[in-house]
Amino acid sequence: MMSAIIGFPQNFLWGGATAANQLEGAYNEGGKGLSSADMVVYVPKEKRTEGHAIEITSRQIEKILAGELDHERFPKRYGIDFYHRYKEDIALFAELGFKVFRLSINWARIFPNGDDALPNEAGLQFYDHVFDELHKYGIEPLVTLSHYETPLGLTHKYNGWAGREAIGHFTRYAETVFTRYKNKVKYWITFNEINMMTVSPFTAGGVVIDRADNKLQTIYQALHHQFVASSLATKLCHAIIPGAKIGCMLARLESYPATCSPKDVLKALHENQLNLFFTDVQARGEYPGYMERYFAENDIVVRKETGDDEILKAHTVDFISFSYYMSLTISADPNGEKAEGNLFGGVKNPYLETSDWGWQIDPTGLRITLNHFYDRYHKPLFIVENGLGAYDKVEEDGSVHDGYRIDYLRRHIEQMKETIADGVDLIGYTSWGPIDLISMSTSEMSKRYGFIYVDQDDEGNGTLKRSKKDSFEWYKRVIATNGEEL
């Protein structure tokens, strides 16, 4: 009789996750070009309107490049200065006991315009130094090729991923970094939260949607280009780095029906299908049948070139990675009370508490998500983002007592342990983000996730000094005991 697996496997990959555009800074140093993230202006909370921080118009880009908005702040250009402080930060990650550190390569640091004749050596050297520093402490890099950092040059020429030309430029970039770092990086991810294209095409793919005649048509065409590029990058990775593992990445949004009404159940099923469509293509290698109806009902015709379907089928990913922050609750009733604070909608779930930003906290939903993923794909799973964005108070002695963060993470890790006992192949966990950084959705600094406090406010003021929160010692103990002491 087989016994259930108890606890985390000995080779479990504990760590933290970041993105270049929220972390590095130095947007105009080392030969780096502008990326989509460098165009995002900070808007104070009281002046925000829906979509302010994640969608940009052609006119806004023109004004930024003409210097008409030089009086505005662009927080993602400056991040938390990891570019100059990476040794200090990696030393802190090593003190935490990280086995893995997820980061992204900023494409525009390697090819400043996206389509340059030659890669930028200074950019390549920077990541050489970062990877070497990680290996000094025995930390494995987990590298995302595209994490909301599309070179602005590709937006100018092709409207980003809306143009098929982006495929060739991306695969050349992928080949360049695979070849350069083949002895330093063995875990890769192609596109971060690839489904974000449906919410913010500019963030996810440098696509300026006001240039499109048909918004949905343009979004799904851009996604097809990313699917093909992801498969070609997977092929290149396997050829250039024997033994390497490369995965896809989804913002997973487990959707519950608000009631047992068949209408609610059917609508929740539909929302789950639209979310899992992306991993269906990248893990199963083909467009699922349910999307044919969706495309037909929304006048979408995805243009494919000869051989595209064969490429998708032949080069599926090795593992599925995903972010998990919340679940969604779906109602067929258009008058249901809306859930506040997230980009993906849904109605309020009366059984869940919410974060400072209105995100519904659902640790059990992580176990449900992991089981659904594994049942559907039977591929290794990697949680590469999970964390609590909250307001942190610095006490007079400099301490930060973030028991709320510890509680959030503890409850999610408990559910991970239960999932492993369920028989799910879970290979790692990188919390978002281990050090305070710029928020993707609002460009705030006050929305903090880290175990490490960074002295910087929403207006960019502060010393950038790093200090440890209470959660630092807690997560250090979690890793040291392989998840046994929570």
What kind of sheet is the major sheet?
A: 8 strands, parallel, barrel
Instruction: Provide the CATH superfamily.
Output: Glycosidases
Write the CATH architecture name.
Alpha-Beta Barrel
Structural class: alpha/beta
**The number of domains:** 1
Number of strands: 14
Uncertain segments are none
Work out the helicity level: 25-40%
Q: Rough shape?
A: globular
Active site: 385 (nucleophile)
Protein name: 6-phospho-beta-glucosidase
Pfam families: Glyco_hydro_1 (PF00232)
Family: Belongs to the glycosyl hydrolase 1 family.
Structural commentary:
- Helix 14 (403-421) links the parallel strand 11 (381-385) and strand 12 (426-432).
- With 486 residues, this protein is α/β, with parallel strands linked by helices.
- 38% of the residues lie in helices and 13% in strands.
- The chain has one domain (13-480): Glycosidases (TIM Barrel, Alpha-Beta Barrel).
- It has helices at residues 20-23, 58-65, 82-96, 107-110, 121-136, 152-158, 165-180, 201-205, 215-240, 262-284, 290-297, 308-314, 363-377, 403-421, 470-480; strands spanning 13-17, 100-104, 140-146, 187-191, 245-251, 255-257, 319-323, 328-330, 353-354, 360-361, 381-385, 426-432, 452-454, 466-468.
- It comes from Paenibacillus haidiansis.
- Belongs to the glycosyl hydrolase 1 family.
- This is 6-phospho-beta-glucosidase.
Summarize the structure.
The chain has a single domain (13-480), classed as TIM Barrel (Alpha-Beta Barrel), CATH 3.20.20.
Strand and helix layout:
Layout: E1 13-17, H1 20-23, H2 58-65, H3 82-96, E2 100-104, H4 107-110, H5 121-136, E3 140-146, H6 152-158, H7 165-180, E4 187-191, H8 201-205, H9 215-240, E5 245-251, E6 255-257, H10 262-284, H11 290-297, H12 308-314, E7 319-323, E8 328-330, E9 353-354, E10 360-361, H13 363-377, E11 381-385, H14 403-421, E12 426-432, E13 452-454, E14 466-468, H15 470-480
Parallel strand pairs: 1-2, 1-12, 2-3, 3-4, 4-5, 5-7, 6-8, 7-11, 11-12
Antiparallel strand pairs: 9-10, 13-14
Helix pairs in contact: 3-5, 7-9, 9-12, 13-14
